[in-house]
């Protein structure tokens, strides 16, 4: 009887321990404080959906649990870092992987078809940098032409006319990206419209459909997504054949075709977001516009902007940096923990997905003074520049695509601000849609007036 009692007690203890371990609400990722999974299959997926975006979910996560916190994406534990100090500890030993691609592959299930690990990632980044530098050098006059067309259109508007910022800059961004990246074929507006339709369908599902699990639950949406993806891939294959036959070396794709990279991968481009937010924030501050105008006059005089003059526009660089910071342009990135690591007192096991909550860090009051205010002068400070470099938005860690976006945005600002003043509409409230890139939730309107 005693033996049976001992056996029974032991069995109950083991059973309770197993339930506590296996039942999703009882576990924490890697022992790091955070949200328990609310569903065994989906983890905290529904919590993310309820918050509206992964960024908003991470804001609440770090508010409750501090700068190192955990949650569950499906059955996978995820660690999120929400301050510069913790990011610095983690980035140094894990600097070789691409943060955007890591998140898509590990968190969203997207596969780019590339292998080879960190070394190939480094090689690919160098190829991209060289390709973008060559593309800008060969096509800078085209960027000037596209910007001049837009500014000329705005100059013709009456001063009280409301200008739809997002719509107009979407047109500029699509023309610039498609023509510079994929060649002369996209001088045809019908090709640009087709590209936009498929790009928007793919991007919206990558940015939201995978994150909230809704893509898999809607057969019609999944069908539209797969159709758009198939059409986009067919278009890219067609462009590849055309460019190989022409043997020209002017577009971004030409440099990729010359390299050893074989995967079909779309450019991720922040041109649209950088331009929209930059002009929106400028419209809220006449003082910033005037300071930028003065720098442009001092550096350029009456000459148009040139590629070699961009580096001299330090205040313009500050404006763009502050645009990215205030808008939280890229609210989330990620790295895969390649070997077991440690952040503060927390051990992060090998192959744990580590989220960089950049949107949280970019407005962390302990890192940035007056974090919610648009203030380009903050980047005069060495500490602000170092923090920004660490987050991957400037310096050697900047992704090549963001450098491209900065170049197009600089051309736009240098042309626009010397001819026009931007004015915000009274009472307009800008709401943000935080997905993989932060954009305005609705159309943003401004008015313009000529500089005397």
UniProtKB/TrEMBL annotation:
Keyword Membrane: yes
Family designation: Belongs to the cytochrome P450 family.
Keyword set, alphabetical order: Coiled coil, Heme, Iron, Membrane, Metal-binding, Transmembrane, Transmembrane helix
Superkingdom: Eukaryota
Transmembrane regions listed in the UniProt entry: 6-23
Gene Ontology MF term list: heme binding; iron ion binding; monooxygenase activity; oxidoreductase activity, acting on paired donors, with incorporation or reduction of molecular oxygen
Record's GO cellular component terms: membrane
InterPro entries (UniProt xref): CYP450_20A1-like, Cyt_P450, Cyt_P450_E_grp-I, Cyt_P450_sf
Coiled-coil residue windows: 215-249
Binding site for heme: 399
Cofactor(s) needed for function: heme
Protein name as annotated: Cytochrome P450 20A1
């Amino acid at each position: 009887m005693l033996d049976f009692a001992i056996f029974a007690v032991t069995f109950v203890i083991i059973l309770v321990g197993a339930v506590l371990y296996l039942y999703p609400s009882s576990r924490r990722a890697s022992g790091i404080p955070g949200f328990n999974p609310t569903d065994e299959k989906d983890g905290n997926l529904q919590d993310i959906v309820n918050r509206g975006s992964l960024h908003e979910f991470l804001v609440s996560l770090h508010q409750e649990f501090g700068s190192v916190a955990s949650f569950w994406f499906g059955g996978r534990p995820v660690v999120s870092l929400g301050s510069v100090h913790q990011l610095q500890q983690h980035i140094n030993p894990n600097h070789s992987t691409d943060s955007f691609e890591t998140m898509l592959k590990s968190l969203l299930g997207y596969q780019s078809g590339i292998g080879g690990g960190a070394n190939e990632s480094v090689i690919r980044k160098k190829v991209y940098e060289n390709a973008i530098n060559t593309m800008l050098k060969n096509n800078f006059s085209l960027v000037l032409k596209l910007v001049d067309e837009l500014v000329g259109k705005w100059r013709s508007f009456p001063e009280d006319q409301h200008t739809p910022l997002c719509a107009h800059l979407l047109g500029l961004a699509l023309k610039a990206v498609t023509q510079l990246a994929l060649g002369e074929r996209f001088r045809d507006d019908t090709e640009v419209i087709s590209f936009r339709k498929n790009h928007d369908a793919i991007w919206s599902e990558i940015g939201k459909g995978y994150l909230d699990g809704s893509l898999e639950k809607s057969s019609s949406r999944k069908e539209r997504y797969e159709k758009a993806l198939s059409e986009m891939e067919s278009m890219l294959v067609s462009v590849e054949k055309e460019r190989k036959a022409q043997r020209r070396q002017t577009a971004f794709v030409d440099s990729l075709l010359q390299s050893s990279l074989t995967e079909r991968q779309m450019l991720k481009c922040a041109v649209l977001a950088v331009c929209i937010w930059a002009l929106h924030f400028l419209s809220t501050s006449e003082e910033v516009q005037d300071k930028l105008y003065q720098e442009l006059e001092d550096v350029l005089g009456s000459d148009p902007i040139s590629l070699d003059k961009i580096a001299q526009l330090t205040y313009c660089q500050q404006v763009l940096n502050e645009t990215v910071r205030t808008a939280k342009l890229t609210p989330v990135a990620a790295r895969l923990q390649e070997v077991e690591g440690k952040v503060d007192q927390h051990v992060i096991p090998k192959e744990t997905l580590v989220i960089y909550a950049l949107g949280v860090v970019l407005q962390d009051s302990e890192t940035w003074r007056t974090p919610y205010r648009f203030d380009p002068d903050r980047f005069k400070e060495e500490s602000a520049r170092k923090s920004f470099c660490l987050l991957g938005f400037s310096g050697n860690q900047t992704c090549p695509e963001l450098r491209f976006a900065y170049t197009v945005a600089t051309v736009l600002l240098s042309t626009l601000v010397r001819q026009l003043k931007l004015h915000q509409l009274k009472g307009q409230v800008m709401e943000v849609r935080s997905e993989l890139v932060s954009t305005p939730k609705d159309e943003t309107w401004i008015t313009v007036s000529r500089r005397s």
